[in-house]
Structures are given as structure tokens and as C-alpha cells.
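Project outcomes to date are best conveyed with an example. Our students and postdoctoral researchers have been running inverse folding experiments weekly, and each run begins with a structure described purely in C-alpha cells. The record below, which covers 84 residues, was selected by the lab manager from last quarter's runs and is presented without edits.
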């Protein structure tokens, strides 16, 4: 669905929620983390995920749409599935 020059990314449907996506990331240094994107993974959501990755946010996050097209992210309360 989208790529990143320094990370391998897998995108799949979130278990039990066909409207949400898991964005599973494997960094070049071997670090693995996952973002759960609630709702559609459209161009705006992808841009937000890219900013999180580029900003060095390397923990499991839940990303949800906020008011007026903004997004908000918070640490996941449970471990999310990993890349590969």
C-alpha cells in the first residue's frame, strides 16, 4: 500500500475490525513496531503514519481520526502483532 526508504512495511486488516488497518514496520536495525490505524488508511492517514515513522516514534500506537481531518496517536494498551 505504501513504502518507506528505510523500513519494510506490511499493511493488513486489523483482526475483528475490517475498517481498520495494522501497519507493521520492520526498521533496518531490526526494531519492530506496529501502528493500529482506526478507520480508512487514506492518503492523509498514510502521511500521518510517515510523519510518525520519520519522527522516530518506534512503539505500538493506536492512531485515530480527530476533528477536522487531524489525527491523534496514543500508545497501545496491548501488544500489537509484529512484522513478519
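After processing, the design step wrote out the following sequence:
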Amino acid at each position: 500500500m505504501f513504502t518507506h526508504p528505510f523500513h519494510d512495511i506490511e499493511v493488513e486488516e486489523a483482526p475483528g475490525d475490517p475498517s481498520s488497518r495494522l501497519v507493521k514496520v520492520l526498521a533496518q536495525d531490526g526494531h519492530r513496531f506496529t501502528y493500529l490505524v482506526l478507520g480508512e488508511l487514506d492518503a492523509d492517514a498514510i502521511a500521518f503514519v510517515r510523519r510518525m515513522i520519520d519522527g522516530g516514534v518506534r512503539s505500538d500506537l493506536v492512531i485515530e481520526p480527530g476533528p477536522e481531518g487531524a489525527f491523534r496517536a496514543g500508545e497501545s494498551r496491548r501488544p500489537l502483532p509484529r512484522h513478519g
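Residues 7 and 16 are 26 Å apart (CA to CA). The chain has a mean pLDDT of 93. The training component of this project remains on track.
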